[in-house]
Structures are given as C-alpha cells and as structure tokens.
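Why do we bother with a discrete structure alphabet at all? Because it lets us treat a fold like text: something you can write down, compare, and reason about line by line. To make this less abstract, here is a complete entry for Alpha-amylase. Read it the way you would read a sentence in a foreign language you are learning: slowly, and without expecting to understand everything at once.
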Amino acid sequence: MKKLIYPLLLVTAVLLFSCKKSGTFPNTEPTPTPTVPTTPTYPLPSAAKDGVVFINGGVSAIVTLYAPSKSSVYVVGDFNDWQTLPAYQMKLAPDNTTWWVQIDNLNPNTEYAYQFFVDGTLKVADPYCEKVLDPNNDSYISSVTYPNLKAYPTGKTTGIVSVMQANQPVYTWKNGSFTRPAKDNLVVYELLIRDFTTEHSYASTLQKLDYLKDLGINAIELMPVTEFEGNLSWGYNVSYYFAPDKYYGTKTALQNFIDECHGKGIAVIMDMVLNHSFGQSPMVQLYFDGNKPTSNSPWFNVDAKHPYNVGYDFNHESPATKYFVKNVVKFWMQNYKIDGFRFDLSKGFTQNYSTNDAGFAAYDASRIAIWKEYNNYIKSIDPNNFYVILEHFADASEEKVLADDGMMLWNNLNYNMNEATMGWIPTSDFSWAFYTKHGFSKSENLVDYMESHDEERLNFKNITYGNVVTGYSVKDLTTALKREEMAAAFLFAVPGPKMIWQFGELGYDVSIDFNGRTGDKPIKWEYFTDSRRKALYDAYTKFIKLKKNNTIFTSPTYTYSVSGGLKYIKLTNGTNTVVVVGNFDVTNQTANIDFGTTGAWIDATGGATMNLANTTYGATLAPGEYHIYSKQALN
C-alpha cells in the first residue's frame, strides 16, 4: 500500500502546481456566496412610544427614533456625559425602521438634555420632544417669559438638543365644559404673540384678553407657536412640532392661556405648518445631502412639488408623513385642548408637480383624498365642532368638495375691499365674499377676511394710495378710518364666519414691509386712546355683536349689489329684513334699492328712524356714509 501512496501524492502535487500556474482549479466544490453583515434586531418593548416614555416611576425611560436605512444610533446626553457608550447604543426593532434603548438610573425630577448620534456623523434632537435647547437663541429669552430655563450643555455637544423629564409641571385645567361657537357665528382674531404686546408672551397677551372679549370676538387664531428657527419669526419656519416655542413662554403658560380663553367664551385655533419644514428639523437632517433631502427620506420630497414652497416639502402620500401628521394633530388636540387648526398652505399637500399658479390650483383628486383622510382622523378624535380651516385657494370645484366634507376655507377679500375703502370703484367688487359664489351649500365653510398676516394693511393703503377729489380725501386719517368702519359693516353682514387681523379694528397703518415683511412691527396700544381709532373699535364691537346676536346675519336668503360705488346687502329672515347700504365712492351717490316693504325702518348705526312711503329707497349718500336698516329692532 505504501508503494501506491507515494506516486499518488506526487501526481497530486504536480496537478496542484500546474493549476496554480494556470490560475484554474478543478471545480470540486461550489463557490461560497459572500455574506452581508446584518444588524441584529430586538423586540420593541410594549411600553415604547414615539420619542420618550418613562417607566418604573420615572427612574427609567424607553427612547425611540424612527430612522429607516441607518446603520447605528446612540443616544447621548446628560445621563452619560454625552459619550457613545455601549449601554446607550440603540437596538433595531424587527420592523427595521425603529431604534430603541432603555435608559436607567434617572432622577424623575431632573431635566435631561439629549441627542441622537446617527451613523457616527450626525447629531440630532428628538423629533417628538416637547422642549429643545438652542445654543444660539435661548440667551435672548427673558427669565420673566421663561423662568429657570435649563442651560445649554456648552462644551459637551453642538446643535439643538432635546429635553426630557419624567415629573414635568402638570397644568390643572379649570374650564372643562367649554362649548365652541357655531362655525357660522365664528369671529376669529388672528394674533401674532410677538407683535401683540411688548413682552411677547402668553401671560402678557392674557392681560389684553378683556380687550378682545369686549370687542366681541369668540375665537383667537394663534400664528404658529411650535418651535421655529430663531426667535423673531412669524413661525412658519417650523422645526419641532411637539414643542411650544420658548420665546413666548412655557408649556403650562400656553395651556393656561387656552384655559383662560375658554373661561371667557373664546375658542383657540392653532396655525399648523405641515406643508414644509426647515433645515433645523431633525427629520430633514436625518436624510439630507447638504443641499436638499435625499430620495430615501421617509417624509420629504427631494424637490418641492409646487411653486410656493418654502423650506423642504413634505410628501403627504408617504405613510410615514401621514403617521407623523396624525400624531401631531392628536397631540395638540389632547394635550392643549385646542379647538381648531388653520392649516398653512394646505394646497401644497400634493404630489402632482406644478410650476405655475394655474397648475397648482387645478382640481386635484389626490390632494382631496389626503385632506379627507386627515379631516376624518381629526373628527375621529373630536367630533364636537372642531374647526379645520384650510389656506387653500384652489379651484372652486375642489374647495366645494372639501367644504362638503366639513372643512372651512380661508377667503381673502383684501384686494377688492381695500379698493373699495380707497375709493377705486372699478376694482371694488367684493361679491366673492358670498358662499354661493363659491358653490358652497353652507355659509359656515367660508372664512371671509379683509386682512390677515399676509396682506398689506388696509389703512396703510388708504392713507398712501387713497382716492382724492376736491373737498374729499381718503388719505385723511379720519376719513380713512370712517371708510374702514363702513367696510366692516359690510363684512359682518355677509353670512358666514369672519376673521380680523390684529389691530385692524384700530386702523393699524404701519406697512407690512416695515422692518422687512416678517420683521417685528411697532406695537400701537396708544391707538386705543385716540378717539378716532377708538370709534372704529366701537363700530367693530357693534357689528360683531349684531352678527352674533341676530340670526338674520346667518340667513341664506339675501340679495346684494357690491360692484358699484353705492353698495348694499339685503337679508331676509322670517318677518325681518336688514339692508346694509353704503357709498364707497368719493362723490355723492343716489341709491335705488328695493327694500321690499314700506313704513318705519330702524337704523342700527344710531341714525334716526326712516319712513319709506314706497318700497324703493332713493336717498343720496355722501362719500363714506353708510346705514344698517332693519324692519324690526336688532339685538
């Protein structure tokens, strides 16, 4: 046997040497497939939720981050001296999208700053946190507005950091039985906390609440108060959706503001910005190439789908975006008892690409489906007259579908009503104020306004560009304010909800472009002591109370003529008729209006009772003269 073995070994050695030289080997075994390392997964604890949830009496916390396609995530913070320690490496859940870790040995009464360290390069705050610390802007926040604000962990990290605390201050609500005003009777006051009082806080705004209640409004619409970039902002550059911006006050201060409003019969509507987010957002940063979102972002389009986008455009057909949006609205509805949302740039909730106004506004079935889904979700949380208001400005046929689903649509009358107040009659037709012009079946779905945060101020244009003829000048302040009064009489006579921009009731006349369009504006509370401006406030008060206290101003039976200099609105309800008539021209105009019945007519503006010998009203009105006549006394 040994004699046979040696020759065989020799032959084998020769074959091996030959194969090595030629680069080929006998195919005696299959070539092994290279293995790709995989991240092990760990079941998500049943107590986990988006962001942070505290367990074990606040001694422990389960922290989660939704971050598909990432390879490693650590949580760093005050609890581990901002070190990427093995115990704080987050585990990947079996869904391959959610990372989690449990942190122990916490003090429930301590605020902890923390961040996520992703893929060894990126530090971001928690998208679901309810408070952030900003190294660049927090130093400008007054200790009166936000007492005992936690210091930023300087030298430990960079960028925005999240804050978590188990035993947070808990607000005790006092007004649990607030009944929201009917949509049709809603009078909204749009308010920017920054420019309403010099202290720019919820607390200082509360001190003016009686001023607003006396005015008669029954809803306040807060411009965005979720954490936005910087401090001096309109708030549309939002970055954290669950955190109230600290520049205006604490979480409990906002809750108290809402509670106190409810106690005075005033609903609170929140301006919600979900068309886009800005670069400070951790959701943007997690999937960003340095210039724009990457194609694997769960939330954002690489490029905006419409021409009016700012920041980075949400993809509202993405399940991740829909999930996030629903969490946001649910959070504010349940934790802050908000009564409604005004959704900014709601027309942008589309994946149909457009480059111009016409394409952007065209009927969009997919956009309708998105909004119906969100609206139905909101109704599932709170079916009790919750306000869903859209800044939409799309094709009327699309807005009708949304209105039929119960949503309310912003209706901008600024241009035509300002042309009327300035005395430029050919362009002063504001018939778009009437819901029937939109094809709506109910007036409650159309929110008319002469001013919002976004338009030039009426009285600035009156004084700057008003019509002037011999003996009469719209540019004169007293005249301009009187014409504002007349316009308000018409606005509140039109059936449906109405909105006022802050200080419009005092004839605010500082341009929107003062200090830059979105820059802070002079706060003119001294207007209230000016008898001419106070007269405008008093007129607003009267018109609002007439609207709220007399059902005729919600009547679907009306006629109008608002295209000429002599304008009127006639409403009928049962045995009563109201006619609002005014001369928006700069010269005398004679009326020719069928009042429908003869006899005595009461002037709600304080004028003498008028007796009509026949049904035609043919009085001559001076420029700026107006009346509110009714057959029966109004409340």
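What the structure line is telling us, in plain words: Residues 214 and 541 are 7 Å apart (CA to CA). The mean pLDDT is 94.
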